[in-house]
Input
Amino acid sequence: MSSREAILAAVKKSQPELLPLPQQDYVSTVPGDVQRFSDTLESIGGKSYLLNQEEGVLEVIAKLFPDAKRVVSVDTSITVHYLHEYESIVHHSLQDVDVAIIKAQFGVAENGAVWVTEEELKIRVMPFICEHLVAIVDAKEIVPNMHEAYNRIGLAEYGFGVFIAGPSKTADIEQSLVLGAHGPKSMTVLIR
Amino acid sequence: MNHNGTKDHAELAEKFNRDEERVNWHDRTLWWIRQKRDKAAWSLGDEWEPLREEASRIKSHTLSNLSEYLQEFEKNAQANGMTVHWAADAKEHNQIVHSILSKQNIQQIVKSKSMLTEECHLNDYLKEEGIDVIDTDLGERIVQLAEETPSHIVLPCIHWKKEEIGELFHRHLGSPEGVIDPSFLTNTARVHLREKFLTRRIAITGVNFAIAETGEFVVCTNEGNADMGAHLADVHIACMGIEKLIPKRKNLGVFLRLLARSATGQPITTYSSHFKKPRKGQQLHIVLVDNGRSTQLGREDFRNSLKCIRCGACFNTCPVYRRSGGHSYHNAIAGPIGSILAPNLDMRQYKDLPFASTLCGSCSNVCPVKINIHEQLYQWRQVLTEEGYQPKSKYMAMKAMATTLSKPTFFNIAGKAGRWAMKLVPGVVSNQYNPWYKEREMPEPPNESFTEWYQKNRKKKNEQ
Output
């Protein structure tokens, strides 16, 4: 008997009688609160930036990262920094990216996270390998909590999806919080 | 002492307790994390307790239908393009991982945190086979450089001080001598590990949750090390215990709300990565490991321990863990939960662990999936005693105690003798052979027993 069959047989023998799966539906009546999203994001080491009507993303990027040498994006609206060769590029070569700009599907007010999938990222390692991460999210795309987040995701198809909440961080050395463990040293969410 | 001559929890804890200042520091640090957990839980107000209840019930359901869910997961994962492997025990798990490396002709890999691979002693196994494994979680890298194992499942080097880490990095990573600034040291590790991420072609990660419905799995980190490894490697191997399954994707809403809040008091980990399909041109392997879990599933009293989502909240709150340190548990998973998981794997080797508890119940109170940890610790004590895993001296002492307590005359004589001895020849009680005397002042012996006092006072009063 293969290990597969042996494990399945052992599990079947050991498992108790079927218990019901709770089927609670979480549907909130209120939309996500942009202020709460911003406050939570700031409290976990991220930054939020409310774009006003006249301001363009590129202007803000230039203002926030005046010294950035390599800025990349695969969002078609970011024409200047658009990474045309994203399909052929060796992903490791993004290791000197100063700022990566990504478009997020939505944000979660209760924990300051944004949801992105391979569809928007094109290159999975992009939001991890860059020195600074900028995510753009629409103000009307903030959901209150994780239940609503998964209601929204539903059974969508993707190869890879990720909630990102703030910069890469660690507190492994005596519980001192350090931003920029392996990934971005900062994460800014531009809310428009 | 354990049967194979290794030290048991009490002996190892004694060693840890020699440095009182360090014990106090360890205790305070973990309590601080426990308090952060409380604040995070309270921030959800009335939602918290129903969430715990629901998480617990989702896990109960999953365990009651695990064989079906495993097959559903396998089918969907394969349809997603993953290769699914099954390992009955630690040895088979290690062999499977090694065979994947051999096929690729790879000798150097990166690995992010996976308590399962610690449980299976994968690093030792691969080292024997000539494979160089670099642990990429900062805390794990620190203990790896020091040739130690993690002392906590979430905070692997919680027992290390920055001065010692500075010294360790100076020796191994060439940081300047005497530099102990956590930012500087973290950056030193960042530079060191960045090179590994960029050059190593196989990455191993753990799994926090696997979803039967979609055949995907979720890995949670704050550092981003699992993602850096997996997204840059040609081959990604994810290792998981079979109890990591949950039925539906939407169940993640419940678990991700609980996990980080319980672990560190964060509202969510920085990264909650959902791996569904291999990257174009990449291989994605998943190893499903039993290693005693199907046995534990069959033990009715201990089945609930398989609900564990490895948040470490029971460690941080435990008065024994905080004051004895993770290594005293001589098991990959320490703390209260480790103490109910370990005897399932080997009763003889871990017979001491269910006794490393005050049974205060704090662990059960903080557990996000409502495992009755302290009750299981108590139940393990009974099983271990029935199965004969107690030292003879304890049986004798318990027998003597039972006789004394069941015979009032004996009890009175013993009480008198005890009070007399403690007063006149305290050395009989207060000596190194009495474990109760260690680290404790014995109490002042009372002049009379409660019975004597009662006879004199209350009884008289009642008669009046």
